[in-house]
Amino acid sequence: MTATDHAVELVHVAALAAGDKLGKELLAFDVSDQLAITDAFLLVSAGNDRQVKAIVDEVEDKLRDVGAKPIRREGQREGRWVLLDYGEIVVHVQHEEERRFYALERLWRDCPIIELPPEATGPA
């Protein structure tokens, strides 16, 4: 099983939004073979708490524009790691320190990578 076309489309929308707010190290995984609850993860790093919030706000706005509504949001208050669950996709926006510490990309490295639009990759 692979991520649905709709899930990949949502990942692209979210990635473009994150890139617009200078999200870093964007990486998307097709986790549909490993998890029954979602098709894809998008990982995004941010340099500070304020930037995490800006990225989250932009992702929510752009996904809302295409009709996607979050099922839940966690971590907004702390601003270090915000998880946005849209059912088909889950977006993780993490402060750079949390990204290095938790290393989700290592955990999901066996899953196929979803190619992101070049304009969505943000600064290296």
TrEMBL record:
<comment type="function">
    <text>Functions as a ribosomal silencing factor. Interacts with ribosomal protein uL14 (rplN), blocking formation of intersubunit bridge B8. Prevents association of the 30S and 50S ribosomal subunits and the formation of functional ribosomes, thus repressing translation.</text>
</comment>
<protein>
    <recommendedName>
        <fullName>Ribosomal silencing factor RsfS</fullName>
    </recommendedName>
</protein>
<dbReference type="InterPro" id="IPR004394">
    <property type="entry name" value="Iojap/RsfS/C7orf30"/>
</dbReference>
<dbReference type="GO" id="GO:0042256">
    <property type="term" value="P:cytosolic ribosome assembly"/>
</dbReference>
<comment type="similarity">
    <text>Belongs to the Iojap/RsfS family.</text>
</comment>
<keyword id="KW-0678">Repressor</keyword>
<dbReference type="InterPro" id="IPR043519">
    <property type="entry name" value="NT_sf"/>
</dbReference>
<dbReference type="GO" id="GO:0043023">
    <property type="term" value="F:ribosomal large subunit binding"/>
</dbReference>
<dbReference type="Pfam" id="PF02410">
    <property type="entry name" value="RsfS"/>
</dbReference>
<dbReference type="GO" id="GO:0090071">
    <property type="term" value="P:negative regulation of ribosome biogenesis"/>
</dbReference>
<dbReference type="GO" id="GO:0005737">
    <property type="term" value="C:cytoplasm"/>
</dbReference>
<keyword id="KW-0963">Cytoplasm</keyword>
<keyword id="KW-0810">Translation regulation</keyword>
<comment type="subunit">
    <text>Interacts with ribosomal protein uL14 (rplN).</text>
</comment>
<dbReference type="GO" id="GO:0017148">
    <property type="term" value="P:negative regulation of translation"/>
</dbReference>
